[in-house]
Amino acid sequence: MQMLDAQRGNSTGGGVGAYLLHRAKPHIPPWLMAGATGLAGGGANLMWAGSAAAAVGLTLSSVALTGVTWWAGRSTSVQRRLHSAITVAAGASWFTTAALAGPFTGPIPDLFLMGGPTLALSWNVRLLLRTPDTTGGGGGDKGLLEKVGLARAQIGAGKVEPNRVTAPVTLVSGEQTNDDVAKVLPNIASALDVPRTAVRYQPDPDSERRGDLVIVPEDMLKQAAEWEGPSSPGGSIAEPLVIGRYDDGSPMYLWLPGDPKAKRNSTHLLVAGGTGSGKGDLALNLQAEIMSRRDVIVWFSDPKMFQDFRPLLPGYDWAVEGGAPTEGMVESLKVVIPARTRWLGQHGYRQWLPEAAQEQKDPAHSCRADGKACGCPGMPFMVAWMEEAANTLRYLGTDAFTGIAQEARSAGVALVVSLQRPTYDQMDVSTRASLPSVIALGCTPDDEAFSLPEEVLDAGAHPGVWRNRRPGYCYVVSPGIPEDRYASPGRTWFMPESVTGLLEAVAEWSARNGARPDPVTAQAAESVVGRAYTDRKDAGEMNGANEDDTDEDVLVDPEDADIDENLDLPDTQEGDDEPIFGKDTGRKPEPEEARRLFAAALEEFERNGQMIVGPKDFSDWCEEHNLGRSWVSLRLKEAYEEGRLKETSKAGRWRIVPALASA
Predict the structure, then answer these.
(1) Is the same domain home to 532 and 599?
(2) 3-class SS at 211?
């Protein structure tokens, strides 16, 4: 396009004459060359007429000039190369003949008057037939697409943006498809001498032979950009979350709630990336963005005991470590989700909207039968974040999140699952299918297919190229993002230790000014895990307590912490004098005493916040009281029949019903 504009010139004058001159300028050079050749032939005749030496020299010069033209045209199309060589050969031959015999001798002037205009007109016709649809296919070395095996395909006029060129591609009907372009993207990158991730192809959804070739010549992500704080402090979670920038410098957005006006669905999110790929920085950035919004609460599970996330602890509504505490959170979600869905339906919400987080003063969103405003407390959006989820999935089973992922979106709950390798041996197929959004960071080439959809990989996305050498580099696939952005690499903000104070400030703001759990969510969670939820803030403060703090009770053996030193020692009982070594069994409690001890054990689990139990959790207790695992299994079944326990989705695991709820 730039070459055509240069040839056509610029129109700066006015009127018909100026317009005609402007349109004629591109066609004048061939005529000027023809006239110059005629004048040069006449002048040369005055110098070299009848000279044998000049005849030899001019003949050799004509041959050499024609050969140079043919050699120089090797980087153009075959047609242009042949046309140029014929023109030069004809002009040089006439010039040599005119110089030796004279321009007005015999047929020489006739040849000039017929051949000169003919050649000039041939170039005029060639210029007229050149259009934007035909200028791209004959580029360097028979054209870019011809180089990579897509002969006769055409590249149209490109759209040039800062560090981004988008050119429409039209393939040969019946011979080539969009899949053929996807296969040769690495070859195109090689031909252009750019990284593999700098070339993408976005097929036209309405055509199998049309699409857009996108080239980003400069990687603007090499220099990591430091996080400068939340993008919208105090805003709504319905506003976009800014998590980094794309390779052309534009911001990288993500939405979690849906928006019916924008026809955007709510979503769950998979965060996938190998060790060293930058998952930690991404999680801190995204969680800080979420916490800085006024109408959202966050539940957070981290088997690594908040090693990276301690600055954000005050901002979580509920934070638990891995194992049994996470199991309790998962079971709570299974009860919370239908409770929230029921509330939203009763108040006329087909999905969560920002208005749902406010006091319900609108009669259109009332749960009252008389149609008046109900004034119910609002329900904030909810994010359930499962960090290092592979650990949780090994503990609970690969289908632990399946039901949650399938049902939570309609309840105003976004599930975020973060792990290194989202392979099918770690995560249930149904769970993976229910996580429509993904942030794919660097990984091994073999894991690309587990992180990104096939069509995004075909379009040119390759997180396996980065591995862990480009921390923070990622692809984002999510509702609300234009599809032609899916294969565009981006980079998340860099989170150095210097931003710790800012993270703490965000968490403190959230603790003071952020949303509080609505009564429906809170009551549903309490009904499942009791004090593990009601006392969650105290547990969080204990997790963050200073290890140097001391207390007199620290010197007391934990097993003796409840002993009253003023009480007399119990009387001697039968079996107390039996030797404890060299015997298989000691004193065994009577059935009633054993049942009392079992009930006390359940109460102890509940006090400690462990609401999901199974026979393996009683191992130490069985050893202490000389009881077998089968006996515990029977007591668990009895407790279930009495309503003290409820089944979970995992065989052999039981959920303790809080004491008040079971009474």
Answers:
(1) no
(2) strand
581 vs 622 pLDDT, higher one:
622
According to DSSP, the residues that pair with 413 across neighbouring strands are 382
Final residue of a domain: which of 73, 101, 130?
Answer: 130
Query: Which residue pairs, CB below 8 angstroms and at least 24 apart, start in 307-313?
Result: 308/280, 308/283, 308/284, 309/283, 309/284, 309/387, 310/544, 311/500, 311/503, 311/504, 311/507, 312/284, 312/287, 312/288, 312/503, 312/504, 312/506, 312/507, 313/507, 313/540, 313/543, 313/544
DSSP element (H, E) containing 414: strand 413-419
State which of 215, 250, 282 marks the end of a domain: 215
What residue has token string 């800085």? 292
The predicted pLDDT at position 15 comes to 64
Largest CA distance in the chain: 145
Cβ–Cβ under 8 Å, residues 284 and 252: no
Same structural domain, 274 and 198: no
Q: Record the tokens describing residue 616, joined without a space.
A: 């393996």
Q: Does 432 score more than 70 pLDDT?
A: yes
* Overall average pLDDT of the 373-401 stretch: 93
Per-residue DSSP letter, 313:
G
- What per-residue confidence (pLDDT) applies to 299? 98
DSSP 365: G
Say which residue the tokens 């014929």 belong to: 86
DSSP at 172: P
Considering the domain architecture, whether residues 179 and 258 belong to the same structural domain is answered as no
Asked whether 302 and 387 are in contact (CB, 8 A), the reply is yes
β 269-272/437-441 pair status = parallel
Distance of CA 87 to the CA centre of its chain: 56
Report yes or no on 374 lying in a domain. Answer: yes
How many structural domains compose the chain? 4
SS3 per residue for 234-255: CCCCCCCEEEEEECCCCEEEEC
SS3 of 11-79: the string is CCCCHHHHHHHHHHHHHHHHHHHHHHHHHHHHHHHHHHCCCHHHHHHHHHHHHHHHHHHHHHHHHCCHH
User: What is the rounded distance in angstroms from the CA atom of residue 241 to the CA atom of residue 254?
Assistant: 5
pTM: 0.67
Residue 455: name the closest of 249, 179, 68 by CA.
179
Residue 168: give its domain's CATH number: 3.30.70
Tokens for 191, please give them: 């031909």
Q: Is the pLDDT of residue 506 over 90?
A: yes
CB atoms within 10 A of CB 387: 25
Between CA 370 and CA 372 the distance in angstroms is 6
Do 198 and 264 fall into the same domain? no
Q: Which domain holds residue 603?
A: 585-663
Other Cβ atoms less than 10 A from the Cβ of 407: the count is 17
The CATH number of the domain holding residue 298 is 3.40.50.300
Side chain identity at residue 244, one-letter code: G
